[in-house]
Specification:
Strand content: 15-25%
Number of strands: 12
Distance between the termini: 90 Å
Structural class: alpha+beta
Shape: elongated
Radius of gyration: 35 Å
Oligomer: single chain
CATH topology of the largest domain: Chalcone isomerase
Number of domains: 4
Strand order of the largest sheet: 1-2-3-4-5-6
Order of helices and strands: HEEHEHHEEEHHHHHHHEEHEHHHEEHE
Length: 529
């Protein structure tokens, strides 16, 4: 037993000696180190380095001394698109909206889009803040961003230790260094990484080539000015050169502008193509569904079976229409999606049960921005709980599709067409229909009376008596017309009923059991205070 205890102590001491190199940047010490993964794929190893060892999010967030975030790319390929999507999403969910700092907005937007090509395994990104100097961001030792404060550092650090970090384990390992084999292995990877001269040259070429062109242009201009001063005889020739050069520069700028416009037009064209393909697929699905329905009706042996099938189709279409209406009302354009100019058509398929619980949601276009897809997902689940299926609809769960277009110009959504009842349902009537109409009218009366307010002027002057109005509604509960039933003794009481109708909106949707397209409800109230 003692030998086993001694062996465990020796193993632990051996592990501790492996952390003797936990200083990767001069006087800075590793406060924490973790592996960033998505869908079981590791993208980088990230380390937070501080002058002092801290153990809580609050201390780290408030820390004003020198600090550094170091990222070692471990993925064999990290595309520009994934880089931008991951950082934009992580910044958005862990920070407040920026409203009064244009410079910070510009720096964050540049950080998520400064890559000129994919990152590869072994690339290093260092985000370093020094009091009095500000924040410096370098990619493979090449400076890409320079600021005067630590604002951008804190926004990026929040993606590690904010309210929604990559994972609980990631946040825990960054906030407090874990003395285990995983930490030792990750530190060894960062410490042992050697940047190749070829890769350093590639990264510098991303940004140096434009600078060289600018230096050459300045040098040429300086020489032209000097020659025009020293050589008066060649003044006209030099002026011609300058004029020619300006024309060339204007031509280049024009070409750049045209190229940018073409790129924007190309992206818009591709987006419209995707939307058109999605619309075509949806139309084909609906066409196939209609064909399937026609086939089923054709196989029905008796008219009664046909009518029952048509009724089920109607109630299913009615429920789908009610869900789509409710979903459109629940969607809100995400603020961060607007910040990053994200727009497009989101088409989703979902399954819902009889209790209104959405059991699954899937996006039919995987290229749609995550924030827009997440908003539609949330709206579907909220709308489902508020919109229950008609009692007449058979089955325990159903699958539907819904589309929603996010447009930065606040384009209104396509108006949904109300499903039409089959012919055999339009002629139904009798006691059951009368009962449904009566129940619906009572619901409308109850909601209006609940919203009624006795006018203070009428209370003060003791104005009492009955007032009565008629309210005409369509199938969606929209008010088509409000008019007086009979002339009340005091006009102010009738006006109070009119106001109550407006306050009670939206009024209940007409149930499926009513065959009419519109209905008029009489509402009478006795004011007796």
């Amino acid at each position: 037993m003692k030998i086993k205890h001694l062996w465990e102590k020796l193993a632990f001491l051996s592990l501790l000696t492996g952390f003797s190199f936990l200083s990767l940047a001069g006087d800075l010490k590793i406060n924490g180190i973790a592996s960033y993964q998505e869908l079981n794929k590791e993208y980088y190893v990230g380390a937070l380095l501080l002058e002092d060892s801290l153990n809580s999010v609050e201390e780290i967030t408030a820390y004003k001394e020198r600090k550094q975030m170091k990222l070692l790319v471990t993925a064999s390929r990290w595309s520009v698109r994934l880089w931008q999507q991951q950082w934009q999403n992580n910044i958005a969910i862990n920070n407040d909206i920026i409203s009064n700092d244009p410079k910070l907005q510009q720096d964050l937007a540049f950080f998520t889009s400064f890559l000129k090509d994919k990152l590869i395994k072994g690339d290093e990104l260092v985000i370093d803040y020094t009091p009095g100097r500000g924040t410096r961001i370098k990619l493979n030792n090449y400076p890409v961003i320079k600021t005067k404060n630590d604002k951008i550092f804190n926004y990026l650090l929040n993606t590690w230790i904010g309210k929604l970090p990559p994972s609980r384990e990631f946040k825990s390992r960054i906030v407090k260094l874990a003395l285990d084999a995983n930490t030792r292995e990750m530190v060894s990877r960062i410490d042992g990484n050697v940047l190749s001269e070829q890769r350093i040259k590639v990264i510098s070429q991303w940004y140096e080539e434009p600078k060289k062109e600018l230096v050459i242009a300045k040098k040429t201009k300086s020489e032209t000015v000097k020659k025009s001063t020293d050589l008066a005889k060649q003044k006209k020739k030099e002026e011609k050169k300058k004029s020619h050069k300006k024309l060339e520069m204007a031509k280049i700028e024009k070409q750049k502008s045209l190229a940018k416009k073409k790129q924007i037009a190309k992206e818009k064209k591709e987006r419209l193509k995707r939307e058109k393909r999605a619309e075509k697929k949806r139309a084909e699905r609906e066409k196939a569904e209609k064909a399937a329905r026609a086939a089923k009706l054709k196989l029905a042996k008796v008219q009664k079976n046909k009518e029952a099938q048509l009724a089920q189709y109607y109630f299913r279409d009615l429920y789908q229409w009610q869900l789509r209406q409710a979903i459109q009302g629940e969607v809100t354009y995400p603020a961060w999606a607007k910040q990053f100019a994200q727009e497009g058509l989101v088409e989703a398929k979902f399954t819902i049960n009889r209790k209104g619980k959405v059991t699954s949601v899937s996006l039919l276009d995987e290229d749609v921005p995550k924030m827009l897809g997440a908003e539609v997902d949330k709206a579907i689940r909220k709308a489902g709980l508020k919109t229950l299926p008609p009692k007449e609809l058979k089955g325990s769960d159903w699958s539907f599709t819904v589309t929603y277009e996010f447009n930065l110009k606040d384009k209104t959504q396509e108006k949904l067409k109300t499903p039409q009842k089959p012919k055999h349902m339009r002629v139904l009537g009798g006691e059951s229909d009368t009962k449904v109409v009566s129940e619906y009218m009572n619901k409308v009366r109850e909601k209006v009376i609940t919203a009624l307010k006795y006018p203070s002027e009428a209370v003060l002057l003791k104005k009492r008596g009955k007032a009565s109005i008629f309210v005409t509604l369509d199938r969606q509960g929209n008010v088509l017309k409000v008019f007086e039933n009979f002339k009340a003794k005091h006009a102010i009481l009738t006006k109070a009923l009119f106001n109550a109708v407006n306050r009670a909106k939206p009024l209940p949707v007409m149930p499926a059991g009513i065959a009419k397209d519109k209905i008029t409800v009489d509402i009478t109230y006795k004011f007796s205070r």
